[in-house]
Predict the 3D structure of the following.
Amino acid sequence: MRSSDVAVMAAGSTATAVDVVGATKIFTVAKGAQVIALDTIDLSVAPGEFVSLIGPSGCGKSTLLRLIADLDQPTTGSVTVFGKSARQARVDQDYGIAFQQAGLLPWRTVAGNIELPLELHGTGKTARKARAAELLELVGLTDFADRYPEQLSGGMQQRVAIARSLAESPKLLLMDEPFGALDEMTRERMQNELVRICAETGAAVVFVTHSIPEAVFLSDRVVVMSPRPGRIVDVIPVALGAAEDRDDDLREAVGFFAAVSAVREALHGTPAGGAAGASAARGVETR
Amino acid sequence: MTRARPILLGVAGVVLLGVAWEGYKALGPADGVVVNGLTVLPRTSDLAMPHLVTMWTRLGEPVTSAAGSPALWEAVVKAAGFTLGIAAVGWIIGVVVGMLLAILMQRFRTAESALLPWIVLSQTVPLIAIAPLVSGWGSQIRFGESRWQDWMSVAVIASYLAFFPVSIGALRGLESPEKAHMELMRTYAVGWWKTLLRLRLPASVPYLIPALRLAAANAVIGTVVAEVSIGLSGGVGRMMVEYASTASGDPGKPWAPIFGAVAIGLIAAGVVALLGLVLKRYRRGEVTA
Ligand SMILES: Nc1ncnc2c1ncn2[C@@H]1O[C@H](COP(=O)(O)OP(=O)(O)OP(=O)(O)O)[C@@H](O)[C@H]1O
Ligand SMILES: [Mg+2]
C-alpha cells in the first residue's frame, strides 16, 4: 500500500474532495500576450457533493477542471484533491474524467474502451468483462458492446465515455459538458442516471455545463463564472433534496424554477447590485 | 464484386502492357526512336524486343542444351525462392531496426535530432558503395565454427534499404495520437511504456502499413542488386547478369529472371497486404503515404 493511501485514511472523510485556493491560470500566447483564463479562484467541494460550473464560453470552466485533473498546473495558488496534491490524486487514480469530446480509441470496441482504465491498472479479465457489462447496461448500450466507436452516433460515443469514466468507481467525477452531444430525452435520462450513480457511489462531482436547468437539476451548488478574466461571480446553493427523491417531478417543482431564475440572474448579472446582495443573504461564499 | 474489381483492374493493366509491347514492336520504327542521338524508344528487332510468345515458350524449354538440364521456369522458380528468402530476412531485420529507431527517437527528443539526419543521409549512399564494405566487414566476423556467408551480406544490404521507410513511417505514426488521447493516458497515470503499447503503437499502424509495403519493395530491389554487386549466385540477380550475356542467341531467356523478380515483388506486396488484413481494426482512417 502506498503511503499516500494511508495518509488519506488517516485524514478520513474530513478531507474535502476538492479544494482550490487562490488559483490563477495565465496562458502565454503568441508574442508574449497573456490570457488570464482563471483569476484567483477559490472553490471547495465536499465529499459526495455535486457542483456545477456554468458560464459563458471562454470563462475558464474547462481550465478549472483541468487544474483539478492535474492536466494543467495553476500559475499561482493551489489545488488539493482529497487532501493531497492534484498530481498525487491523479497518480492514485482518485478521479474519473469525461471530456467535452468522447475521445474513444477507434481500434477498440465499445466494451474494450470501457475496459481500458481497468486493463491499464491490471484488473483481471473476468472482472473487467463483468464491470464493462454492468456499465453498458447503465448507459443503455448493452447491444453495442462489440461495435466500434465509428459505428456509433456522437451521443452514444459520449455515453461510452461516461461509462469509461465510471469504470473504477472513482470518489470524484470530473465531467466537462458530457451531455452536450445528447438529445433532450437521452440527456434527461442520463441526468437521472447520474444522480442515481452519485447517490449510490457517494462520488463528488464537478460538472461543467451550459444548461441552467441541467445544472440546477443535478447540483447541490451551482458555481456561476464570468469571462475575461475567468472569475467566480456567484455560488447558488440549490439543494433540491436528497438524490433518492430527485426525479422527473422535480423538473416541474416550484423550487426548481426559483433556482433556475436565480442562476439565470447571476449569469446575466441582473439585478446589478442584487446578485451580490442576494448571494450574501443566502450566505454563499463569493469571491 | 468489390473484391474482384482490383484484380480485374490488375489483369487489365498487364494485358494493356502486353498490347503496348506487341503494338510498338509491330508498328514502331525498326531503329527505334532517336532524339538528338539519344535512344528514347528501343529498336523493334526480335533481339531487343522479343515477342511475348517467345518469352513465354522459352520458359518451358531447358535452361541449356546440355543433357539433364531442368526447364527454364524451374530454374527461375528456384532462384526466385532463394532471392525471396534473403529479401525476407532483410525485410525483417529492416523492420525491427526501423521500429527500434523510431521508438528511440520518439522516446528521446535528442535521439531524434541526433539520428534523423543520419537516417536520411544513409539512403543517399549508393548501394554499389556499401556492398563491398559490408562483405569486407562480414568476412572478419566469425560465430564460433560458422563463418559469415555472402547471403548474409546481401540480407544486410537489403535491410539497409528496408529500415528507412519503416523508421520514418513508424516515427510519424508513434507521434500521431491526438492530444485528447494522450491526456486520457495521463489521467490514467500510466507511464511511457504502457502508453506506447496501448496508444502509440496501435495508432501507428495506419502509418506503418504503407511503410512496410515500401520496405518490402526496397528489400527485394536491394537483394537483387546486392546479389549482383557481391556476386552471390543462386538468386535471380546473378541469373539476370548470366542470361543477359546469352541474349544474342537466345533473346527470350533474359526475360525469365525478370519475371522471377516481378513475381517476388508481388509475393512481398501480398504478404504485407495480408498483414494489413490481420491489423484491420487498427486501420480505421488509413493515411496514404
Ligand atoms: N492551452 C491554452 N493556451 C492558451 N489559451 C488557452 C488555453 N486553454 C484555454 N485558453 C484560454 O483560456 C480561456 C478559458 O478557456 P476554457 O477552455 O477554460 O473556457 P471554457 O469556459 O471551457 O469555454 P467553453 O464553454 O467554450 O468550453 C479562453 O480564453 C481560452 O482562449
Ligand atoms: Mg470548455
